[in-house]
Amino acid sequence: MALQAASLLPASFSIPKEGKIGVKDSTLFGVSLSESLKGDFSSSALRCKRELRQKAGVVRAETAATATPSVTKSSPDGKKTLRKGNVVITGASSGLGLATAKALAETGKWHVIMACRDFLKAARAAKSAGMAKESYTIMHLDLSSLDSVRQFVDNFRRSEMPLDVLVNNAAVYLPTAKEPTFTADGFELSVGTNHLGHFLLSRLLLDDIGKSDYPSKRLIIVGSITGNTNTLAGNVPPKANLGDLRGLAGGLNGLNSSSMIDGGDFDGAKAYKDSKVCNMLTMQEFHRRYHEETGITFASLYPGCIATTGLFREHIPLFKTLFPPFQKYITKGYVSEDEAGKRLAQVVSDPSLTKSGVYWSWNKASASFENQLSQEASDVEKARKVWEVSEKLVGLA
Ligand code: NDP
Ligand code: PMR
User: Fold this and answer.
1) Domain of life of the organism in this record (predicted)?
2) pLDDT of 59 over the 70 cut
């Protein structure tokens, strides 16, 4: 089959979807402290490895394209050395994703595929983070378009790099949006990007990870404390709640169904928290369905409150000023981007974090521990339903 040169190029640069942004909250953090405490709480320019063994004009069968080279190679003195691991990180152009990419690249043991919607931003970010050129590849991925997700998977396979770890990290948070905005496929933007885009990506790349002969292969989905209502942070309104999934089942299009998973009125902050619940449920459903069969470690995590990242870009200026000191000095939940990146890098590569189905958190001494998810975020039946509805929405069932 002839290959069109254009099909190897990343999809065109995305235009960020603009919502009608307005200021919704007049109180400092959108909620009074007393209200929040009422809840129940316990606890490189395009170097897409095209140059790598790509034979001009030929597309190989997928199986051949993803065949894994030997995991070890012999050095001239006869010693066997482990090849570099390959890790795809979505949203590696800023914040946690960039810090994780940097931490892994610096070890010299990982090649990072930065899967980003804004190619130039990613290239500049990698450069200013001081990442060595040979330690990363940038590939275009816009999670708010299912076509782009499929295109990314095709491009990745054509690169013929084995895939050892996938990190689903990218997210959008639209706390001040008064009206919903939508993905290319018509899903509310936060759940469409954070959950459905990653759901399709993970399902498509599962086989590729399964073929890896790397000592530990992993699929990671970044979760958050704010989706877990068994915590103080998770009790700050609006609380996550997927309800009976009627909005999700209706396609989240805001036309013949609600744009919210539970069928309620649009609320950007809740949509984000709901998307994080979907992320954590999806990780567990992957574990139940595929861990034994594939040997892949499925994990989620809360890296700490990284109050300085771009996640809060749509929030009101006062929030952006006060949120970091509030988290540093009052809740003491603050963590720097560097530290959070090291935590996620641990989940990618630490030999002691191979247990599957775990939601990782870190204590004050920055030691990892297996954390408890909220009732909803660990509901087996809901996880199954989210999986089944999601696979229909992304065209897998
Ligand atoms: P950032 O905004 O810094 O990073 C988010 C990344 O996602 C950016 O690289 C952004 O790209 C990318 N992204 C957004 N939309 C898309 C899209 N449609 N396609 C591809 N990439 C996209 O935020 P954080 O680093 O804070 O967030 C990273 C993860 O950490 C998220 O999953 C978030 O939920 C989680 N998290 C964050 C916490 C925090 O306190 N900050 C706490 C708990 C969890 P671009 O650069 O082009 O905008
Ligand atoms: Mg929250 C231990 C207390 C704690 C922690 C760890 C967080 C993390 N937050 C805590 C408490 C509180 N927060 C309290 C008491 C309030 C009311 C004053 C509060 C408010 C608040 C707001 C308005 N917090 C927020 C917001 C946001 O807009 C952030 C959000 O929900 O983003 C979805 C946020 C966060 N608090 C956190 C963390 C980690 C976030 C943001 C990131 C995320 O979950 O991805």
Assistant:
1) Eukaryota
2) no
Instruction: Provide the pLDDT for residue 35.
Output: 35
Look at ligand 1, atom 7, and give the residue with the nearest C-alpha: 170
List active site positions. 272
Res. 14: pLDDT tops 60: no
pLDDT, tens only, 170-179: 999 999 999 9
User: Which ligand is closest in space to the CA of residue 145?
Assistant: 1
Q: Could you tell me the distance, in angstroms and rounded to a whole number, from the CA of residue 223 to the centre of ligand 2? A: 14
pLDDT band at 49 (very low <50, low <70, confident <90, very high): very low
Q: What is the pLDDT of residues 140-159, one digit of tens each?
A: 999 999 999 999 999 999 99
Q: Give CA angle at 46 (172, 190), nearest 5°.
A: 10
Q: Which of 121, 124, 309, 314 is the pocket-test mutation for ligand 1 (most atoms within 8 Å of CB)?
A: 309
pLDDT greater at residue 2 or residue 265: 265
- What's the CA-to-centroid distance between 236 and ligand 2, angstroms? 7
Q: Which of 187, 126, 196, 133 is nearest to 168 (CA)?
A: 196
Give the per-residue pLDDT at 28. 41
Residue 307: CB within 6 Å of ligand 2?
no
Ligand 1 midpoint to CA 10 (Å): 20
The answer, yes or no, to whether any atom of ligand 2 lies below 6 A from the CB of 304, is no
Q: Whose CA is nearest to atom 31 of ligand 2?
A: 226
Complex confidence, ipTM: 0.99
16's CB contacts (< 8 A; 6+ apart) are: none
- pLDDT tens digits, one per residue of 343-366: 999 999 999 999 999 999 999 999
